[in-house]
Amino acid sequence: DIQMTQSPSSLSASVGDRVTITCRASQGISNSLAWYQQKPGKAPKLLLYAASRLESGVPSRFSGSGSGTDYTLTISSLQPEDFATYYCQQYYSTPHTFGQGTKLEIK
Amino acid sequence: EVQLVQSGAEVKKPGESLKISCKGSGYSFTSYWIGWVRQMPGKGLEWMGIIYPGDSDTRYSPSFQGQVTISADKSISTAYLQWSSLKASDTAMYYCARPFVSSGPDAFDIWGQGTMVTVSS
After folding, report:
1. Binary contact (B59, A94; C-beta < 8 A)
2. CA nearest A89: which of A23, A28, A43?
3. Taking residues B15-28, what's their average pLDDT?
4. What are phi and psi of A76, to 5 degrees?
5. Residue B94's closest CA among B83, B102, B84?
6. DSSP for A61-104?
7. What are B68-96's pLDDT values in tens digits?
8. A interface test, pick of B100, B110, B113, B115 with most A CB neighbours within 10 Å
């Protein structure tokens, strides 16, 4: 199985801050990487796929980058509705493993 | 509208069997994979497995192989996740989800609302 290591596991930030979350795969995944946002009591929501492609309807303050084994999710200017938990997922090979999550909290 | 609608919450005893469902609508059910994701209370997402309803090709995570069975009935556009003997550690929210493209088991853009399974004596 490909292991996905996400960091940090939690993060405190303020509205307007720029934040970055990283995800490292245990082997190369050829940009087959998705990012999800999950709010309490809700199903996850796809934000980006193919490492950097924004899902329809997702605000442009969300962006993704990376290649090989290392990927990042950046939120350019945090909004109140962005405080949630974020997960990366590789879909290069089954099982399509998720990272352990990053909880983004209000400072 | 493309959607996945899951069956309702379940409360079961250890050792009991269970089958939960996920009904797809608004798209060609046989053309897209459907996956299952577990989320234990207060924990992260775990990919369990995925099925292609068109030919029932199924892939399991080694962590769940032999513990659950994934199936689909294309005549009623419904996928299933079942247990033959539940354990307390199966207590979790279970989501079904559909990839954003029909060409393969990719990232999930459509999610069901989740089915909470509680196993307690």
Report:
1. yes
2. A23
3. 98
4. -75, -35
5. B83
6. TEEEEEETTEEEEEESS--GGG-SEEEEEE-SSSS-PBP--EEE
7. 999 999 999 999 999 999 999 999 999 99
8. B100
Amino acid occupying residue A85: T
Would you state the structure tokens that stand for residue B61, as one six-digit string? 């995570």
End-to-end CA gap in chain A: 36
CB B94 within 8 A of CB B80: no
Q: How confident is the model at residue B57 (pLDDT cuts 50, 70, 90)?
A: very high
Q: pLDDT tens, B5-19?
A: 999 999 999 999 999
Residue matched to tokens 């970055």: A20
For residue B13, which of B68, B91, B69 has the smallest C-alpha distance? B91
Q: Using the beta-carbon criterion (under 8 Å), do A89 and B107 form an inter-chain contact?
A: yes
